[in-house]
């Protein structure tokens, strides 16, 4: 008891609390002595038996005091557990969190999740780790089968306790899969969830897709972005050929099958999208012929639309719309509002691509020289641009009052958990769309980051800025790449008069 009291003092408990703990601990030790139990071998059942005896004794001494009984329960529980933890080193048994659980907790806190989400994720993760321990399965070896079995057991337990299934079974399942996927990815970064092929046809489709991706990489030398773009379309085509696809049925692939697929796939798509579908299908058919999975090369039989250079005028924001978007965003003084204002200022001032904004790093901003370095995503060249006040002030306000303290070097970060940089260029689509809604701007067609780029090009052309200067600002390797923006300056083009062939000379002179 003296050693226990000293330990409580080292833990920072005040003298009245130490006295209460010693009072309850003494009664617990007397119970163990009467039942000839060693404190170092006490189990959960022994503690539960003590609480039943102690509660009856307490109720005889103080009947009809529910509030004081609740306080007695808590104090007795804390005192007994502290004594057992002092003697045995861990109580309740297996209560010390595993190292993987502690890493997951640290990861959730650093990712910016709220306390309620962190608490739920940690409870589910601890239950899953206990399940894996019962099955003698290491966390790094757990897969989809273990996740599904664990969720099935939790569902059985829920139904037994509540007498019914969850009202929203999808949402209930997602409340388990999110923390499970998180701790599994933390233990094994290569872990990902894939549905196992259900039958021989599904397995064959997976084999064809994987071999096609390998062919694109090894033979064609294409990038990962091309793989991500081609993959879903290839899977759609193979699924359309039937659930029981096999090497024999694929060898019988004919022009009729291709026409049937295109007739089903193309009608609802834009012309540019139809062109992409046909290009991907031709690429797949070339691979199937090269791998001898089909008897002849059917890629030449795919008929798709023709895309002409500069056949449509890109949509751009007007100067009034750009001003309205910046004004609406400036009124939002939250962290998200400051971030969005800095993003829109970069788009409107420099006409940057979306990827050039998301990849901007803290090291790219030279505050002393008032310069900003832009890495152009298409040409891989770098531009050193002046940091004008219209961009520098929103950036500085965001960095000082909106950006969280983190180890990430990218300038623009997510405002919702998990914390991290904006990963893709498509991340700006939601930013622009929400601000357009606030400003009451109705978009016709695509209005993303490129709408700012075309708007900036139009304003520079109308200000008589040389084409070479615009080309340097936009990071184009050739001035010809910038000529597409000339189509936006219609009023400027009208100032150029051309003689009509065959018209009388005096008619032109008379003008």
Q: What does this 3D model show about the protein?
A:
The protein is mainly alpha-helical and 511 residues long. The protein has four domains: 2-88, no CATH class; 99-187; 200-301, DNA polymerase, domain 1 (Orthogonal Bundle), CATH 1.10.150; 319-493, Orthogonal Bundle (hpI Integrase, Chain A), CATH 1.10.443. It is built from 22 helices and three strands. A three-stranded antiparallel β-sheet has the order 1-2-3, with no helix packed on it. Strand 2 and strand 3 (382-386) form a beta hairpin. The longest helix is centred in the N-terminal third of the chain and has 23 residues, at 66-88. The protein starts with a helix and ends with a helix. Residues 505-511 have low confidence and may be disordered.
